[in-house]
Automatic annotation (TrEMBL):
Transmembrane feature ranges: 282-299, 333-357, 433-456
Listed name of the protein: ABC transporter domain-containing protein
SUPFAM superfamilies attached to this UniProt entry: P-loop containing nucleoside triphosphate hydrolases (SSF52540)
Principal localisation: membrane
Database matches in Pfam families: ABC2_membrane (PF01061), ABC2_membrane_7 (PF19055), ABC_tran (PF00005)
Length: 463
C-alpha cells in the first residue's frame, strides 16, 4: 500500500530545492569518480556546495577539517578507483561518501545502511566516524539492518517498522536500550530478553510475523494505542506549525555557486579524469592512427573519400551525475558544457593525426583551403557521427575537393570538366559549400543541446 502525507520543515511545506541545500544524503552505493583523489573529491563537493561567502582559503581549511574528522587525511592523495577492482577499500569508500556530503555543512544527514557490506571492524570504524559527526551537533538519520550491540546502542532514538511500513515503535532507546526493552516487555506474552543478549536481535525476534501470529496480536495496533504514540503525535502536531516570528527558509539563488563557478568546477574535475585515464586516451589515439593508416592504404593515390567507421562513446558518469544533481551541486548546462569543452583538445589531436596521415596518402589537392574544408567535412567526434547525415559529408568532401576544378575527364563516354560533371550528374555546386559547412558545424551544436536536455530531463534511476 501507499502511505501519504505532507512533509513540513519548521512548520512550512518542504521544498526539495531548498531542502537539498541544508541536508545531505549518503547513498548505500558509494558512487565516486574513479580518477580523482580522495581530497579532490571532497574539494569538488565543497567548491560547488558551500556558499559564495566562503572564500578559497576558508574552503580548503574546512576540507582539511572534514578529512581529519572522517579519518581520511592519511589517504587524501590516493585515487578513489573502481569498486572491488582498484583504489581505496570499501570501508574507506563509505567514509568518503560521508565526507563528500558532510563538507556541504548540512544541518541533517541521512544515511542509507552505512554499514551494509562491511565486516565488523570496518563497520565499527564507520560508526566511529558517525559519532564524530554527531559530536559536532548535527542530526543523523540512519536506516540499518541487524546491527551489532555496540552499533545499535550508539543511537539515541529508534523508529522500528514491520513489513508493509507500519510503525511499531518510535522513541528513545535509553541507556543499554532500557526504554526499548521496557516497552516490548510490557506487552503481554512477549518473552523477556535473556542476559547478555543483543537487544537489536531480541527486538527483531519478538516482533517477527511468526511471533505476532503465535500471540495473536498486531504490534502496529498496540503501538497506536500506546501512550508513546500519543506523545509522538503531539510532538508532530506542535512541530507542524511555524513558530511565531519565523520565516520560510529560502535562498536567493537556485544553486550555491553561480554558473561560471559551476562550469570551472566541472571543467576541473573532467580535466583530471581525462588526464589520468591514459589507457582510454591511448586507445582513442591508436584507433585513429590505425583507421587512418587503413584509410590511406585502401585509397592510396585515389583521391576519393569513404566514410570511416564509428565507435560510440558510452559515458560512465551517469550515476554520478544523478547523485550530484540531486544534491543541487550544479545546473545541467554547466556539466554538459564542461563535458563538451573537455573533449575538444582530444578531438583536435585526433583530427590532426587523421589529417596528417590520410590527406597526403589519398593524394588530395594540396592547398590550405582544401585541407581546411577536408577537415571540416571529415568530423572525428564519434558521438556526433551517430547523428551526422552521410550525404552532407559526401557533398562537402566532393565539392570542396573538385567543385572548382576545371580539368576535363572522360565520364560515361563524354568529355566534361570535372566541376561540370559534379553539377550535372549529382547537383554538387561549389557555391553551396558555405551552406554545407554551416550544416556540418551545426550538427555538433545540436547534439550538445540534445545532450544537455537529456541530462536535465531524462532520468533512468528510480529513487
Amino acid at each position: 500500500g501507499y502511505i501519504e502525507g505532507e512533509i513540513r520543515i519548521g512548520g512550512y511545506p518542504k521544498v526539495q530545492e531548498t531542502y537539498a541545500r541544508i541536508s545531505a544524503y549518503c547513498e548505500q552505493t558509494d558512487i565516486h569518480s574513479p580518477m580523482i583523489t580522495v581530497e579532490e573529491s571532497v574539494m569538488y563537493s565543497a567548491w560547488l556546495r558551500l556558499p559564495t561567502e566562503i572564500n578559497k582559503h576558508q574552503r580548503l581549511e574546512f576540507v582539511a577539517e572534514v578529512l581529519q574528522m572522517i579519518e581520511l587525511d592519511e589517504i587524501k592523495d590516493a585515487l578513489v578507483g573502481i569498486p572491488h577492482a582498484s583504489g581505496i577499500s570499501p570501508e574507506q569508500r563509505k567514509r568518503l561518501t560521508i565526507a563528500v556530503e558532510l563538507v556541504s555543512n548540512p544541518s541533517i544527514i541521512f544515511m542509507d545502511e552505512p554499514t551494509s557490506g562491511l565486516d565488523a571492524r570496518a563497520a565499527a570504524i564507520v560508526m566511529r566516524v558517525v559519532k564524530n559527526i554527531v559530536n559536532t551537533k548535527r542530526t543523523i538519520v540512519c536506516t540499518i539492518h541487524q546491527p551489532s550491540i555496540d552499533i545499535f546502542e550508539s543511537f539515541d532514538e529508534l523508529i522500528l517498522m514491520k513489513r508493509g511500513g507500519q510503525m511499531i515503535y518510535s522513541g528513545e532507546l535509553g541507556q543499554h536500550s532500557s526504554r526499548l526493552i521496557e516497552y516490548f516487555e510490557g506487552i503481554p506474552g512477549v518473552p523477556k530478553i535473556k542476559e547478555n543478549h543483543n537487544p537489536a536481535t531480541w527486538m527483531l525476534e519478538v516482533t517477527s510475523p511468526s511471533v505476532e501470529a503465535q500471540l495473536g496480536i498486531d504490534f502496529a495496533c498496540i503501538y497506536k494505542e500506546s501512550h508513546l504514540y500519543k506523545r509522538n503525535k503531539e510532538i508532530v502536531k506542535s512541530q507542524s506549525l511555524p513558530t511565531q516570528g519565523s520565516e520560510k527558509l529560502q535562498f536567493s539563488t537556485p544553486f550555491p555557486q553561480n554558473g561560471w563557478e559551476q562550469l570551472k568546477a566541472c571543467l576541473w574535475k573532467q580535466h583530471l579524469s581525462y588526464w589520468r585515464s591514459p589507457k582510454y586516451n591511448l586507445v582513442r589515439l591508436a584507433f585513429i592512427i590505425l583507421s587512418s593508416l587503413l584509410y590511406g592504404v585502401l585509397l592510396r593515390q585515389k583521391g576519393q573519400n569513404l566514410c570511416s567507421s564509428v565507435l560510440p562513446f558510452v559515458s560512465t558518469q551517469r550515476t554520478i551525475v544523478y547523485r550530484e544533481r540531486f544534491s543541487r551541486m550544479y545546473s545541467s548546462w554547466a556539466y554538459s558544457l564542461a563535458q563538451v569543452i573537455i573533449e575538444i583538445p582530444y578531438i583536435f589531436l585526433e583530427a590532426v593525426l587523421f589529417l596528417t596521415i590520410t590527406y597526403p596518402a589519398v593524394n588530395f589537392y594540396g592547398s590550405a583551403y582544401k585541407v581546411f574544408c577536408y577537415n571540416i567535412c571529415k568530423p572525428l567526434l564519434h558521438v556526433v557521427q551517430l547523428v551526422l547525415r552521410v550525404p552532407h559529408t559526401r557533398t562537402g568532401l566532393l565539392t570542396s575537393q573538385y567543385g572548382d576544378i576545371e580539368e576535363e575527364i572522360m565520364a560515361f563516354g563524354e568529355q566534361k570538366a570535372l566541376n561540370t560533371f559534379l553539377d550535372s550528374q549529382y547537383g554538387y555546386k561549389h557555391r553551396d559549400l558555405p551552406i554545407i559547412a554551416v550544416v556540418l558545424l551545426a550538427f555538433p551544436l545540436v547534439f550538445a543541446s540534445v545532450f544537455t536536455y537529456g541530462i536535465a530531463k531524462l532520468n533512468y534511476q528510480r529513487r
